[in-house]
Amino acid sequence: MKLTDLRGILQYIPQFREKTFVLAIDGSIVTDDNFATLLLDVALLWSLNIRVALVHGASAQIRSLADDGKIEASDFDGTGVTDAQTLDLALTAANRLTHEILEGLSANDLRAASTNVIIAHPVGSLHGVDHLFTGKVERVDAELLQSLLAQGVVPVIPPLGFDGDGKTYRVNSDGVALAVAEQLKATKLIFVTSRDGLLHRGQLIRQMPVAELVGLLQDDAAGFGSDMVSKAQHAASACRAGIPRVHVINGTLEEGLLGEVFSNHGLGTLIYANEYEYIRAAKKKDVRAILLLIKQAVEAEELVKRTKSTIEKSLGDYYIFEIDKNPVGCVALHVYPEQSKGEVACLYVASSHENQGIGRKLMQFVENKARELGLRQLLALSTQAVTYFQSKGGFVEGTPDNLPPARRERYDQSGRNSRVLIKDLA
Ligand SMILES: CC(C)(COP(=O)(O)OP(=O)(O)OC[C@H]1O[C@@H](n2cnc3c(N)ncnc32)[C@H](O)[C@@H]1OP(=O)(O)O)[C@@H](O)C(=O)NCCC(=O)NCCS
């Protein structure tokens, strides 16, 4: 590992300290060769004061126990009917998996506890069919979970629910993870699966605001495939329940978890709660991030060079587009009040996040600002993104005469020969 990697990781630490991540691990991952590495990563998160609770599934193991014993299981994932013998299989599978997780955590010197924090009641009859031992999460004993987490104990939560009368029910682990994350007010819910992330019609979703995911689920839920639709639904519910970030990652990849948590462009899928609020005014501490962000574009002469002090002088003009608290884009709106004009400047989107509409959102954002300020015209100067401003932003070609006098003077001095683009806001 390079020292710069470590620096890259360290920048995330303050925002995650004392925060809770809920990891929802598919049963198939617990028996995967990479599981030991995943638990090592969990230990690393704990060492950085990030509290991690583990929820696990068991369907793959129920399936294999059923095959081994030549038993016909009535359901695998806790969504259908659980008959008595299937509940038996679920208990065996879940207990075995919990134990394996506890073993793995001990191997990493982590204290852990198997819990009975899911209070459930029977689902009952649906469409006239009694679901027998399938349970529905009624409540989560968040107090117990919080006290374990506060003592540095990793809670391990199996896909089983308990009622007050000593009965056990099989519950779906995605639903458990959602309820636990909600009750713990988790910062992240991370589904650890054997797929690369959420795929829709074969296309990996890298990042998506929850509203878009809800739309996809409404229009074409089948596109997620039967194995991932539950993750998509629970990811959407989690974001809507106030969990800002839901990730779906591949637990068989060595860097799956850390790569997702500690990088601007994770390997899996990120569903986030609300995109708009993540365009925000830049603060003094963001100046370095802006300089770093635009460095490449300045070198390629796409953007004009700016120094720390030039940005600081007009810091109030700058806005940042953040995903998961990481700046991935920026824009500035310089206002010329006398001419009632505004200039869109320093528009930049990190190459890792290009072609996702972020540039357009930033342009729209400053246009809205300009309208709020009652400006009559927007200007943009560009050497290499002229058609972008025209086709995506609705700008038309203007001339240097459109520039306010002070700006015109700098334009003439710069020798960049940028093209002038204008958009009337009236
Ligand atoms: C220009 C830039 C801001 C676009 O950001 P983005 O978030 O990738 O753009 P969007 O997702 O909103 O739009 C993508 C579309 O614009 C097109 N596009 C991207 N850069 C373009 C450019 N320089 N010229 C023309 N079209 C461009 C893409 O091909 C894509 O087209 P499609 O939707 O028809 O497939 C980004 O590429 C960038 O930062 N470039 C370097 C800096 C720069 O030139 N800034 C503008 C000068 S102030």
Q: What can you tell me about this protein's structure?
A:
- Helix content is 38%, strand content 25%.
- The radius of gyration is 26 Å and the shape is elongated.
- It has 16 helices and 23 strands.
- Strand 19 and strand 20 form a beta hairpin.
- The longest helix is centred in the N-terminal third of the chain and has 24 residues.
- By secondary structure, the protein is of the alpha/beta class.
- It binds coenzyme A.
- Coenzyme A binds next to strand 20, helix 14 and helix 15.
Bound small-molecule species: coenzyme A
- Assign an overall shape: elongated
Query: What is the number of E strands?
Result: 23
Note poorly predicted spans.
none
The overall average pLDDT, rounded, is 92
State the separation between the terminal residues, measured CA to CA.
55 Å
Strand order of the largest sheet: 3-8-2-1-11-15-16-14
Instruction: Label the structural class.
Output: alpha/beta
Radius of gyration: 26 Å
